[in-house]
Structures are given as C-alpha cells and as structure tokens.
Records
---
Amino acid sequence: MREWKKNREMMKSHFDSDAFAGEESDQTLGMKQPPLEIEPLPDSRIIDLPESSAAELTEQNIYKCFLKRKSRRKYSEESISLKELSYMLWATQGLKRIVPAYSMTGKATLRTVPSAGARHTFETYLAVNDVTGLESGIYRYSALNHNIVFLFKIADMKKKLTEAAVGQSYVGRAPVIFLWACKPYLGEWRYKGESHKAMLLDAGHVCQNLYLAAESLNLGTVAIAAYSQNKVDELLRLDGNDEFIVYLAPVGKVENAYRHQHD
C-alpha cells in the first residue's frame, strides 16, 4: 500500500471496533475534566466585544447566504469593524449556555456550532492586521466571556503569515485571519483515539459558519488547510503537541466588482 493511503483509516469510524479495547477513557477513570478554554494571565489586556446582534447584516436571508457562499481570496483595503468581528466570533464559537454533563463529573458548553460530545476542542486565535480599534497582533477569543485577549505583537506579521501559509499572500494581507488551534486532550479525555476524526469534522462545522457569517456581512473568506505546521505553530507560540493549528481562514471586505463578477 502506498504510504499516504494509510491515512484513510483515520477517516473511518472505529467506535464498534476493538482498536482501543481494554483502555478506559480518562473520563471513565474519573480523571478531572480539562478546562473548557485557556484562562488569560492575570495581567492580560482584555478587550470586551460588542453584542453579536449589534452587527449590521447586509444580507439577512439565509437562503441567499447559502446561494452566494463561496471561497473569496480578493479583499478591498477597507478595515473590518469590531462589531463585524464580534459577530463572526459568535457565529463560529459563540456560547449559548453551560450545562452539567457527563454524570455530573464536569460541564459542557452548547454553542452556535455542533461538536462531538459537546467537547468544543478549539481555541480561536486571531491575527489582526486591520480591525477598527485594535492594534496589530495576535489575539485569542474567549467564548465563555465573549471577549478577546491581546497576546503579543509580531514584527513583519504579514510576511510571516504568508510564509506560514506556504506563499499564499492573500492570507497575510487580509484584515484578520482566524486560526483554529486544536487541544486534542479535550476530545481524548472522553473518546480516546476515536476522538481525532470527530475533532477534524468539528473544524469543518466551525469554518462553514464563518463562510455564512461573512456572506451576511458582505465579507469574504476562504478555508485554508495548506500551511506549514511548524511555522504557523511557532508563529502563535503553540507547543505543537497539546495545542496546534488545524485550520485557518483570512477574512476581508469583498470588492463589489469582484463580488458581482463571481456571484
């Protein structure tokens, strides 16, 4: 068998197999549930976001959003507003409520996207180039509090983002880039080795919501799975093992001529 064909096994369901027979999940063993999201450091700079409903939608017809949805790689030089960013963050990871779960051994979050076992294994990072009211740099979204935490600045960020995206320059130039980092133990704690396929499926749910939210705001995005794992993890200062990037998507205002030509 060709070496790369072995990856096909991860696409299959193994919930009824004995691949992990004899292994109890950490949840079953009574081990403490991992935190729902990363806590900010005590001296972190936290920026509250406007209510997600404050965004002014240019398209409120969901049917038209489905119809117009497509990958868009050309953006105007307009900035994105904080209201627009708030809405897109809520649409992709927004918290609806926290509920007791797992035989009262922990808590789970119900959000605007589905997730296997309500594990929600992703942290949303933002590389901000041009969002009104925000300085350039790397941020992390808190779904529990609907705010963002400023993490650090990066010199020559546009260039480094382009390099991390294996030369796709529109990624580096976009006003904001969503970068979803997986924390695999959040899924493994409950589902052991069966969790990995489910987590990748969940990434698709998140990104599709970004597509639809962007279309409703006359913004454009494109899902990016071609990137340098080492470069993007290093850029965000992730360890690459317990947390690593699995998906990213640049977002920008769509040039009207481009929209009308390609809709």
Note: The chain has one domain: 40-262.
---
Amino acid sequence: MIAVEKALEQYGSPVYVRHEIVHNKYVVQTLEKKGAIFVEETAEVPEGSIVMFSAHGVAPTVHQEAAERKLATIDATCPLVTKVHKEAVRFAQDDFDILLIGHEGHEEVIGTSGEAPDHITLVDGPEDVAGVEVRDPSKVVWLSQTTLSVDETMETVGALKEKFPLLVSPPSDDICYATQNRQIAVKQMGEDADLVIVVGSKNSSNSVRLVEVALGAGANDAHLVDFAEEIDEAWLEGVSTVGVTSGASVPEVLVDGVLAWLAERGFEDVEIVKAAEESITFSLPKELRRDLRAEAAALSEK
C-alpha cells in the first residue's frame, strides 16, 4: 500500500497496478480513490504509462510485455516471493525438477512457474502427489507458495518424500514469516475460542488459511470478514470467548473496527496472543527509491 501511495505522490495519477497490490478489499478501494488503476493484464495499460507489479510477483514474460509497450515499471514484488523466484531459477539451471506446492491460478504461483516453466510441476496439495512424475528421482526439489498453511504444506512435503526419498528441500523456509506467525497464534487461540473472526478478504490465500487453521485447532466456529459490519450477530449466540486475527496485509484500522464492534456487544476484555515479535521491514521498490533520491538531490542543489 505504501509503495503505491508513494508512487502516486511522486508521479501523480494515474499509476496502473497489475493485479491487486495485495489481496485486501479495503486497501484496493483506498488506493483507487487516490488515483491508482488496477488492471488484470499488462495490455490494459496505455503505452508509455507507469505500471506497478503487485507483491505476488510476475513471470519474466510480463516484464518483456511491459518493455514492448514502453511502460515504466515499478516492481513491488515481496522480497520473500523474489527469494522463491531466485531459487526456482537456480534449481532449473542445475537441471532439477521443481515441485511447486501451491494453489493453481494464484498470481504468485503463476509468477514463480513462469521463471522456469520447463522445470516446474505444480502440486496443489497431498492429493496431487500420486500423479507427479519426474525425469530423475535423484534430482527433485520442492518449493512453495509463500501464503500457504504450514501444516498443509508439510503434509504435502511428507507425501512427496515418501514418493521421492531423495527430495531436496529449499535452503530456507518459503512460507512468509507473517503468515507463519499468524497461524501459530491462531492455533493457540483456537484451543480456547468458541468463535474466531479473521479479518481479511476472500481472495487472500493466507486469510482463508487462518480460518482453516482456527477450525483445525479446535475453534467451534470461524469466519472471514473484510469489515466489522459483515459480522453476523447470530455468530455470537452461546459464545463466551472470541478470537480475532487478521491476514498478513490487513490494515490495523480494520482489526480495531472489529474489536470495537465486539466491545459494544459485551466483549470488552482483550487478551493479546503473540506468537513472535515482527521487526522485519521492507524497502520501497528500487525504481521508486531511485526517483525519490534523484528528486531529493535536485532539490538540494537549488
């Protein structure tokens, strides 16, 4: 969100964004009001315009399409997704078969697959494992979409290792740290909560996973909402403890809105469940940093 806002301040509107910058309805609506235009394909962006690539990453062919249309590009791919892209390229160069664990059609999966299409096979859960075929069982590696359920991913990995005992794991965990931390906290919460409310959008993979994790951890009920007004008061019948969490890209104001809504209905006492301290911050896209520095330098010379 900050990257798009900074781009609008720097270049003025419109700034085109290929796909939702993050999968959150509130964020997208807020940026649209400020002058961002979200498109599905690069071909929808007028030639010579500015286009930002979303946090989910894009395939190399998209960069090529943008160059052909003479678009000024800002790559806002999440660094954790970029890491997976680089792993895919490196293992493909070493002629490994890459088993990408993820959900078919998700933007991140499409982007990662595009880095090495001749080497990558998508594995969409444990049920896909039986049909996976590779050229050489001694040269197989698994990678994953960054927003999956940790438990589901490891279940898939376990099934793959049974089929391919020499399966290589990525050098470091692919699942986003924010996604993992929220899943750990929801597991703790779900053991004691009658109801868990996850603040996030339905097209947000990590938010959907949190509902599944809450139910798997023992919560009697769990629901996904974008805004507090989407909560159904009938969900509160017979409920004494409510757990509240949010997807990784959800603004805090939306969580505060849910807490205020619950407080008005008798759930005033709040206990924080913290799985880990999050101190990691990411820089603005390099193209935006370059132009901001150039502007600052020009102003200092006046």
Note: Strands lie at 15-18, 36-39, 50-53, 72-75, 97-101, 120-123, 140-144, 195-199, 221-225, 242-246.
